[in-house]
Amino acid sequence: MRSSFSFWVKSTVIAVTIISGCATLAKINIDEEFGVATPENRAATPENRAATPENRTATSEEQATTQEHRAESKTTAVNNNSALTASLQQEHDFYTAHAKPIIESRCVVCHACYDAPCQLKMSSPEGIERGANKEAVYEGSRLLAAQPNRLFVDAFEVQQWRERAFFPVLNERVQTAKANTQASVIARMLMLKKQHPLPDDKILDARFNGSLIGNQQCPTIEEFDQFAKSEPLAGMPYGLPGLNNQEDKILMTWLENGANMPKAQALPKAEQDAVNKLEAFLNADSLNMQLSARYIYEHLFSTHLYFEALTEQSLPPQFYNLVRSVTPTGQEIQIIAGRRPYDAPNTDRVYYRLQPITSTIVNKTHQPYAINKDLMDKWEKWFVTADYTVTKLPSYKPKVAANPLTAFEQLPVNSRYRFMLERAENTIMGYIKGPVCRGQVALNVINDRFWVYFVDPDMADSPDLKAFYAKQQNNLRMPAEEQSTTLAVDWIEYANRQADYLKARNAFFNTSIKDGKHLTIDGIWNGDNVNENASLTVFRHFDNATVVKGLIGQQPKTAWVIDYVLLERIHYLLVAGFDVYGNYGHQLLTRLYMDFLRLEGEANFLALLPPENRKKELKSWYQKAGIELSDFIEFSNVEFNQASGIEYKSTNPKQELYNLLNQHLSPVQPNRYHLKTSELTSNSVALLKQINSIKGERVAILPELTMIMVETNDANAPEVFTLVRNSAHYNVNSLFFEEDNRDIKNDTVTLVHGLIGSYPDSFLHVKETDIASLVVTLQNMKTAKDYEKMLDVFAVRRTNPDFWQFSDKLHKSFMQHEPIRGGWLDFNRLESR
């Protein structure tokens, strides 16, 4: 730390000189001034030169006329090498101790995942070196699937990214102090911000809302002068306060000295031993284990695995991606880069490997998945010692691989279902944090808040039921078999299959299972009385969402009951089978098919109600529904009048059903987000609970997600809450014009203790003594002007000079309370109101 700080002190004078000398951002001919850009120029950094000391000794050939001179030259080269290595270590220490924390807290909060502006991912050295790209990943109108550009998957060398139209944001010309700032997009963006700071206004004007936010621009260094003239307020951080002087000096010093970043270090022995053990389990040679490992991989490829027993030694823990490789344990991982996890590997043997995650953890993609003894014992039971035999490994052809009911029919159904239920939160979280970071088209198919229950896995093990599902394989085919470029008209084919499946299923239950024995509370999985994944709450926040364990908030409008076949298809529709780079047909077909799966989950819940209440309840869920949905429901539903097996005693069966389910699941209900877990005074908690009663038009004024920090007497221990807006809809089957389908009078809110969601829209900063004032203000809001006045008193707007100080404190609290689940939030949704 001392050496890196000394390095910064010595370099600050140079950096300040460069910044002041370049303040006018005068236009220069970049190529004439600094040479032509090529990744090899950055490769010839001190790290490269230190490895080849002869290149650093200009007079070595002249001096090597005698053995004495050769010896002298060798000594000089060794000394130079040692000096360069020490210098490089200083630069790496400086990056790690000083530059990286600023990049994470000021840059990564906007530049991560597919929705990073200009695809610039600053969450890793590899992402920064890769640079930016003008093409948008989220493009719902493209006719053909785009080329995937996944970091750590589709390319690895900088030159490969240049060939994929990524341009540098660091200097790739002559490596001098001046070039390292003047020929660097990052440096120029920082200088532009310094020259044109955020206006001294509480709300950003049209220069922000009408330019880069709505119309993303991605200037190369060659285009930067013109860009700076046309968008002088576009410096970074964009639409937020600039860095303070010290932060700016640190980053400019780092850039001026070549922006060197250390490579990932080797794993500690304990970690490597754990990796080797898990890989040995997954890569056993038997056909049973090869198929089981394929199943495990296709369900966990988007998660962040970690070894729970090692977390006490390292917090946050070392996370890993489970990947396919052509090489076994002990050799360097060689990624098999398919669009989907079940694409043909084009190799005789697939090895499942753990790839260490070296990127900064961001909350919007973070799915922590603990590997522990209890889990491994269950995997052993489900996949190793279970009584089954795999006679032949299934094909990777799309019509087989895209349908898990076909590809994995040789694995026990109970094993597959229990595998997904064991971490059901992670299973459902996959379609929110898996292949995508966000996407309204993928999410406007669900209600803003609903509860999820699961059918008991012992029911899925019924021989009759397994035989029925085996006969339905053709009707249960998945849209992903059409690949990434397809036509949405294929929807009709899948709609007919789904209708045939539902008719067959209803007929099966009507004739095969009598007296409602499968439609009782006991048929709902209770987590075996220990697993808190037995119930979930899903929150939708317009184009992003959150899933958490437990039944959070007041009783919702709708709920799902998910059985094995439905859970499997949700995963293969929205996670394993979804391609964010796919064309409009693929994405639209995915969205339309999800309508069927939502209806199926809702129908399972409705089946627990008395027969005479089912249609009435369904009709209330789909007010003003389009004729397409109405026709589908009528066509696909054979009359299902079998009684539920539940003896209802009230005039409100749905409310009674919710209460019965709550009682059934009470032993496994977590209280993590309950207001009662707050350490505020009982009076403060009672006041906060009143916010949950706000309803209707005043709720519609609020943004999707409001994160609230409450300051207590202990200034170092603030309490954090999240206010979630639940937007009501007449129905959620409308593909377009969602605003026309809003049922504003039934909007509600859910206030939870802790942070929910990855994309905050608004921040409030409140003293505990002012909670009563905040609650009254929220209760009395009627107009957007009232909301603005509330913000004037309590908000930390994106224009607030103390914005970054608040952000740092919020993230510190988040990471302290959630060292495993926590990650950097995304500020791309922050409003300016």
The share of residues in helices is 40-55%
- Low-confidence spans: 12-27, 47-78, 210-214
Number of helices: 34
**Lateral arrangement of strands in the main beta sheet:** 7-6-5-8
- What is the C-alpha radius of gyration, as a whole number of Å? 29 Å
Strand content: 5-15%
Choose one word for the global shape. Answer: globular
Q: Give me the count of strands.
A: 12
Distance between the termini: 42 Å
Tell me, rounded to a whole number, the average pLDDT. Answer: 88
- Tally of separate domains: 3
From the helix content, strand content and strand pairing, which structural class follows? Answer: alpha/beta
Largest sheet: 4 strands, mixed
Briefly summarize what is shown:
This protein has 833 residues and is of the alpha/beta class. It comes from Psychrosphaera saromensis.
Structure description:
By secondary structure, this protein is an alpha/beta fold. It has three domains: 2-256, no CATH class; 270-663, no CATH class; 675-817, 2-Layer Sandwich (Nonspecific Lipid-transfer Protein, Chain A), CATH 3.30.1050. 43% of the residues lie in helices and 8% in strands. Strands 7-6-5-8 form a four-stranded mixed sheet. A four-stranded mixed sheet has the order 11-10-9-12. It has a two-stranded parallel ribbon with strand order 1-4. A hairpin with a 7-residue loop joins strand 9 (705-711) and strand 10. Helix 1 crosses helix 6, helix 16 (373-384) packs antiparallel against helix 19 (413-422) and helix 32 runs antiparallel to helix 33. It is globular and about 80 Å long.
